[in-house]
Design goal:
Blueprint lengths: L39 E3 L5 E3 L5 H18 L3 H15 L5 E8 L2 E7 L2 H13 L3 H8 L2 E4 L9 H9 L4 E7 L6 E8 L8 H24 L5 H26 L3 H15 L3 H13 L1
Antiparallel strand pairs: 1-2, 3-4, 3-7, 5-6, 6-7
Length: about 290
């Protein structure tokens, strides 16, 4: 199997080497600002919300309230997901593009995104069968790439992201015990450096609230075969955790180090984490 870091059979990005431009969303005056996100926005009650960079947690609290209103209003799943992406882009410091990955019946797709760049980078991972957003969804973990110029762990994805001007990424597994696994993906192209602890804390908390909105909207949409899919998702995560335990025992490493070993094996063999985990389990019981 071809090493992921040198995989040449997948197409390279085409077109201009500059970053794909995404249309700015209008501010309260109707004109896009330089960051492409609004200076103020109206919540579902019509009240203006002013972005306060000096108090990001305050803005985050308002976003959580907005998510709760979305749940109570029982809006369609597509509307809920689009609003999740928009709110995340508004409140997470350094976020230039945001997407939501859902994995259902082993099929991954971007169900909401703030611009074409986010979905393009997501789809590169879906084609490969793995990547930070997919691994975050499957494992429920937080996966951060501080510098795509280095790209440890995901060399092909990092190369493509860097090619389009994305310098750092953050993928947050959305906690769920239902039929769908999900991840919130944040892409940043700013020169201020990787996502800091404040951004990570806001994103992680937001993903938890967003997962509630997602699950409620999914129930309202009448999801089918939930029990079977839930068992499959739980089995996948259980296998990964069991494989991590085996690696921790055999290699005397930490849980985080064991996950890195799994991820690197998946990258090198171009296979999914779940399959690598099952191989390790099978070898241990053989």
């Amino acid at each position: 199997m071809t090493d992921h870091s040198s995989n040449s059979d997948r197409p390279e990005a085409t077109g201009n080497a500059d970053r794909i431009k995404t249309p700015g969303r209008p501010n309260s005056a109707g004109n896009p600002n330089s960051a492409g996100r609004p200076d103020s926005a109206a919540d579902s009650t019509g009240e203006a919300v002013t972005a306060d960079s000096a108090c990001p947690m305050g803005c985050a609290v308002h976003a959580y309230v907005e998510l709760a209103k979305i749940i109570l209003n029982e809006q369609p799943l597509g509307v809920v997901l689009r609003r999740i992406a928009e709110l995340a882009a508004e409140i997470i410091p350094g976020a230039d593009d945001v997407s939501v990955t859902l994995i259902e019946r082993e099929q991954a797709r971007s169900v909401a995104f703030t611009g074409p760049l986010a979905v393009a980078l997501d789809e590169r991972q879906y084609e490969a069968g793995f990547g930070p957003c997919m691994d975050a969804a499957v494992t429920g973990q937080v996966i951060q790439i501080d510098d795509t110029a280095v790209g440890d762990g995901y060399p092909d994805f990092s190369r493509q992201a860097h090619h389009h001007g994305i310098r750092h990424t953050l993928s947050i597994g959305m906690p769920t015990n239902q039929s769908i696994a999900g991840a919130l993906n944040i892409y940043g192209g700013g020169s201020s450096g990787p996502f800091d602890q404040t951004a990570r804390d806001i994103a992680t908390t937001f993903a938890g609230y967003a997962a509630i909105a997602l699950l409620n909207a999914t129930l309202y949409a009448g999801a089918t075969d939930e029990v079977a899919q839930m068992r499959q998702a739980m089995a996948s995560r259980a296998s990964i955790e069991q494989a991590k335990g085996i690696l921790m025992r055999d290699r005397r490493c930490t849980a985080d180090e064991a996950f890195i070993i799994l991820r690197e094996k998946a990258s090198r063999s171009n296979r999914k984490l779940r399959a690598i985990a099952q191989d390790i389990i099978d070898e241990a019981v053989a």
